[in-house]
Amino acid sequence: MKKSFIIYPYFFALFPVLSLFSHNVGEVSFTEILLPALVLMTVTTIILGLFRVFFGNMIKAAILTAVFLVLSMSYMHIYQSIDWEIAGFMIGRHRNLMPAWIILFGCCTFFIRRTQRNLSDLTKILNILGLILMMIPLVAIGSHKFKTNSAVWDPKTMEDIGNEQQLSTNPQKLRDIYYIILDRYPDADTLQRIWAFDNKEFIDYLTNRGFYVATESRSNYLKTAHSLASSLNAQFINFLRDQVGEESSDWLPLYQMLQDYKVQRFLKSKGYKYLHFGSWWGPTSKNKHADTNFKLQRLSEFFSILFKTTIFFPIAVALGMDDRREEIARRVLYKFDALSEIPKIHEPTFVFAHMIIPHSPYVFDRNGNFLTETQVNNRSRRENYLEQLIFTNMKIKILIDKILLNSDIKPIIILQADEGTFPNRYINEGPSFKWEHATEEELKEKMGILNAYYLPEIDFDVLYPSITPVNSFRLIFRHYFGLNLKMLPDKMYAFVDENRLYSFFDVTNKIIQSKKNRE
Length: 519
Prior knowledge:
The chain is elongated. It contains 22 helices and eleven strands. Helix 1 (8-23) runs parallel beside helix 6 (120-147) and helix 2 crosses helix 3. The chain is of the alpha/beta class. It has helices at residues 8-23, 34-55, 58-73, 75-81, 94-114, 120-147, 188-195, 200-208, 224-231, 240-244, 252-259, 262-269, 282-285, 301-307, 312-318, 324-339, 373-377, 381-406, 424-429, 440-447, 472-481, 508-518; strands at residues 85-86, 89-90, 177-182, 212-213, 273-277, 292-294, 349-355, 412-416, 451-454, 493-497, 500-506. The protein has two domains: 8-147, no CATH class; 174-278 and 313-352 and 359-518, Alkaline Phosphatase, subunit A (3-Layer(aba) Sandwich). Strand 5, helix 13 (282-285) and strand 6 form a beta-alpha-beta unit. The longest helix is centred in the first third of the chain and has 28 residues, at 120-147.
């Protein structure tokens, strides 16, 4: 008898990976899918081998493997879509759905084991079906790549920060440089107006410790990727509009600028060690150019999302083996502890630390106690946000005290937010929100940020209340390294919506007018 060619279990295994990638192709690099794809291929091979031993038949083993994969990989999708109540009986609960899954899988196993039919034709059909399933996301991925003009970022193509004409000098004292990003930390005025919270105590602390707090600072762009791509390269990124196109929704050009950026290139050329403190967010989770990556994360963001769609996620949670919220909390505490140890390193260091707090998810109360998801759900957004912000203030004060106390040479510290909080209308409408229709107050909330500088031996006269992140390193490189860099206009740019990430328009005057109207 002719041997059946069996390939479809691997198609079924790869389909969830490719499907998730196709829905996030503008935000995830191809390399991020390689590990989950390899894991699923390996698991499929092991399961196929076990079922072959059980059945003594490769065709039956392949069919049950496919059944197992479909049921396992679709479990959480089904769970989240079922919210039915029949005669007071809630179907959409794990305690009801999990036994149903086991019974269904058991019935399939029994039927496949007992059947005497020739399953060769079914194998051919499943091979074709698997191939079709693979083609659906592959076509979507290919279509996106064909339509998208992705720019290839080369830090040398724009103004070179460290070229000879800039008259760069090597200062006698190479100070440690800390660039600490507190995600979605607004300016004091926004906290007072929008959140009814007085942040004076924290601002006074910074001032008393020698920081200059730019009270009227705004982010140059709306979102983290745009904002950091600009500040870490000390330039505006509007040129991407011409390279990528105004209609592009591809985030990858921005993510490239977060990996190989001008600030770290220049500082490494001056003898600095580059220490990268990553976040759970993929683009800043690690940096391939860093001398050391400080990272406390088991799975990538992509792998974590994929895992959460499977039947193994609720099982892991029930066994206490997976709690993403606890992992996020541990990562924050780990980074604060590791940052406080940097003064012990003898070489000059450049530290980039992306702290995704007070940004959600909300995992801390003001005293640093871990909050369960139930506790968070029982509180208002305002209470959760402010509790985590107060905790952030406490940890930053402890960190700054330790850094300043233990540093042999006074360091340079930039304490800065990448963006402010989202206005309520954006939360209700989501990524389709049209920023061109945003009010002055909404733009002010989104772009008003904490921005504080500790610059030893620098006269505060070089600073000013409305300085924006694009000028942070320009100012530092001018005054500490002798670079003849011009300060750029402190402009603010929005984009139309998240389907047109590079359709930039100037909102500077609109935000300034908002301030004048309040006065």
